[in-house]
Design a protein that fits this description.
This protein is mainly α. The chain has one domain. Strands 1-2 form a two-stranded antiparallel sheet. Strand 1 and strand 2 form a beta hairpin. Helix 6 runs parallel beside helix 9. The longest helix has 29 residues.
Length: 344
């Protein structure tokens, strides 16, 4: 068989797979889904540079979260001297600040994409709108349910971890580094933190899919098959404690409070952006800002796959990777039949 014939067959297979997935979704990115090239072998420095350049050298979630972390540290964080003792004033100030950040962040995305439908269904993965009159949600309303768990539990647990870390900094219990002392590590830590968070998320997420813990806690998050901005942080308090525990790394590795804030925004605001249900923000019919993660959207549709994210290839290494193909869907459905007695 000639090279051209083999190439033609490969193209036909990809086209058929894409056509099959198009019946499942309103829109999906180019398939198959790929992982970060950071862990590919042999290493490809050009692909690795391009992958990270698109997230750090352009306007992106990572760059905006980093700028927000700097702004919060400079203008909205109580002085560390005040944090030496647990007092209502500075703790309440941090809680109200975090509440406002979450309401503005997730709320703005919800208003744009869901309430005012500024993009209609363009780049939207799932054809459906957010659920109403659905008994699976508290108050029979997906958005109200998601907002309650995100704010009442999510922001509370987030603030509790943050307060503990600021108290640790103030009492010199948490290792501290600033830009002047070690500029290389100070900047490199921003790049490493999402990789650490991805590693932690995969293993915590696998734990949350252990049937007893799934039924107790994680099933609340999985009410959201068709996700929206408020779905990302809509979790049971047990899941919030586990999910946000990746920030405990700062008790071990020298960091600055700016790193801590960036880490929290990656886990909280990042959950809102990746759960928008849209691939990106269209400006003049061009995707100008990457938002949703189809990798994770597949997890919400098929449950027992893609426990991590595209930054870390744990799913590929441990056999839970869904690359968006119909073949992968059948494998996941069989896996669900074995685990839960259902193959939807």
């Amino acid at each position: 068989m000639s090279v051209s014939e083999r190439t033609g067959q490969a193209t036909d297979v990809q086209d058929n797979a894409s056509e099959a997935m198009s019946r499942e979704w309103n829109w999906h990115p180019e398939l198959p889904v790929r992982n970060s090239p950071l862990f590919s072998w042999p290493p490809n420095p050009t692909k690795i540079f391009n992958w990270y350049a698109t997230t750090w050298l352009k306007v992106s979630e990572r760059s905006l979260f980093a700028l927000l972390a700097v702004a919060v540290w400079l203008y909205l964080q109580p002085a560390l001297e005040r944090c030496r003792d647990f007092e209502f004033g500075w703790i309440a100030q941090m809680y109200v600040r975090n509440l406002a950040i979450m309401i503005i962040g997730a709320g703005a995305l919800h208003l744009y994409f869901c309430t005012f439908a500024k993009q209609d269904k363009k780049l939207k993965y799932d054809r459906r709108d957010q659920a109403r009159n659905a008994r699976s949600f508290s108050w029979n309303n997906q958005v109200v349910d998601n907002m309650f768990w995100s704010l009442a539990s999510g922001v509370t647990v987030w603030t509790a971890y943050e307060v503990l870390l600021m108290w640790g900094y103030a009492n010199e219990l948490v290792p501290y580094v600033n830009f002047g002392e070690n500029p290389v590590w100070f900047l490199l830590w921003f790049v490493v933190l999402p990789i650490w968070a991805s590693f932690h998320f995969y293993w915590v997420h696998r734990l949350l899919h252990w049937p007893p813990l799934y039924r107790l806690a994680h099933s609340l998050h999985h009410r959201n098959v068709n996700v929206g901005p408020w779905s990302g942080l809509s979790m049971h308090p047990i899941e919030h404690v586990l999910y946000l525990s990746s920030v405990l790394i700062h008790w071990v590795v020298a960091s600055h409070p700016i790193h801590v804030f960036f880490h929290f925004y990656w886990n909280t605001l990042g959950a809102a952006t990746t759960h928008t249900g849209y691939e990106g923000l269209l400006i003049k019919d061009r995707n100008r800002f990457q938002l949703g993660a189809f990798f994770h959207q597949l997890h919400h549709r098929y449950f027992e796959c893609n426990y991590g994210n595209a930054d870390f290839p744990w799913d590929k290494w441990f056999g839970s990777f869904h690359n968006g193909s119909p073949e992968a869907t059948e494998k996941v459905r069989e896996r669900r039949r074995r685990m839960h007695g259902t193959g939807r």
